[in-house]
Write a structure and sequence with these properties.
Blueprint (H helix, E strand, L loop, with lengths): L2 H12 L9 H8 L3 H13 L4 E4 L5 E4 L3 H27 L1 H13 L1
Antiparallel strand pairs: 1-2
Helix pairs in contact: 2-3
């Protein structure tokens, strides 16, 4: 069985709905995967349209979205994360000049 099929089967059996989210480490262990492979598997499944949500709140972990409201919340969470990443990237790009100046000071100093 592929990691993806195992993931989907496990979520369908044990983690339908945000209230039943399974922590990343526990899910990886149950599937016999390391956490990096689990994350890659989740991302690939999501890109193919699988409704896998994740939570970082009171019950952190991955879950299979149970209804449209949960799907909307999962999408909104991903959009917030994307927006935060975009802001971080923009600030890091602005820091190029400062990094270059520090490098020059180190060489001249």
């Amino acid at each position: 069985m592929t990691p993806r099929r195992a993931l989907m089967d496990y979520l369908a059996a044990y983690a339908v709905g945000a209230a039943r989210a399974i922590p990343r480490k526990r899910l990886a262990s149950a599937l016999g995967l390391d956490t990096r492979t689990l994350e890659q598997t989740v991302q690939a499944a999501r890109r193919d349209g699988e409704p896998i949500g994740s939570s970082t709140g009171r019950i952190p972990g991955y879950y299979l979205v149970a209804d449209v409201r949960e799907l909307d919340r999962a999408i909104a969470a991903l959009e917030r994360r994307r927006n935060q990443c975009s802001l971080t990237i923009a600030e890091m790009r602005r820091s190029r000049k400062r990094v270059g100046q520090r490098h020059l000071f180190a060489i001249q100093g």
